[in-house]
Specification:
This protein is an alpha+beta fold. It has a single domain, classed as Creatine Amidinohydrolase. Helices cover 25% and strands 24% of the residues. It is built from four helices and 16 strands. The strands form five sheets. Strands 2, 3, 5 and 6 form a four-stranded antiparallel β-sheet that branches. The chain has a three-stranded antiparallel β-sheet with strand order 1-8-9. It has a three-stranded antiparallel β-sheet with strand order 4-13-12, with no helix packed on it. A hairpin with a 4-residue loop joins strand 15 and strand 16. Helix 1 crosses helix 2 and helix 3 packs antiparallel against helix 4. The longest helix is centred in the N-terminal third of the chain and has 21 residues. The chain starts with a strand and ends in a 16-residue tail after the last strand.
Amino acid sequence: MPRTHQAASTRIVAPARKSAAEIEKMRVAGQLAASVLEMIGEFVVSGVSTAELDQRCHDFIVNDLACRPAPLNYRASAHQPPFPKSICTSVNHVVCHGIPSESKVLRRGDIVNIDVTVVKDGWHGDTSKMFFVGEPSVLAKRLVRVCQECLYIGIEQVRPGAALGDIGAAIQHHAERNRFSVVREYGGHGIGRVFHEEPQVLHYGRRGAGARLEPGMTFTIEPMINAGAHPVKTLKDRWTVVTKDHRLSAQWEHTLVVTDTGAEVLTRRREETAFDASGSL
């Protein structure tokens, strides 16, 4: 679940380093979150409402995994209403934080991001994936592919001594080289016992900027890539974020930990053959 980028903040804040025991708890939470996305895929079909997808995920998280869905009743600030559902479902031009609804029924050609965060034994696992409903347009298929590539390219930058800005710079370069744009207002975030910890992980920027990475740091990378221009707006529900030009948007997300040699992807799914069996790049 993306965090609002506080543009006024210029201080460099590094993620809190986790112990080996804490990382193991996050590894468990991450794999449980990944299993939700693996479970729900077969139900993402034309004619299903996003509320039905939310209910299936909620029941699986609570009853099968014995976890708590972190988005349910979450509020980012005192001025924002609690998020009313257990997952986010962002369809077509919805960038992030889409609220599942009985009235939002998926149609052939739609693209939808399902964003899942579970809490297990007090630790968070946060991940999202894009799904196609039937056959997507050529543009939609290309946008989703490039966005996933942006995620993997961002993860490739993670290693001890690298800067947080290296992640955003690499993602921005790949997106813009493919004539897409990067959302500025929302980004990744530190994560652990708290849903949204420091630091903010921007998906644009310059190399060498920001905190230096050290083993044991945990955070999300979750690029939001638009087919058109990058500006977005928030709807009256104070949650749903859409592209201003109503062009398509895509997002992929993983939770990861910095290792001695690179990054371990804690929310790796079995389908992701780009990673080895340990979840490492």
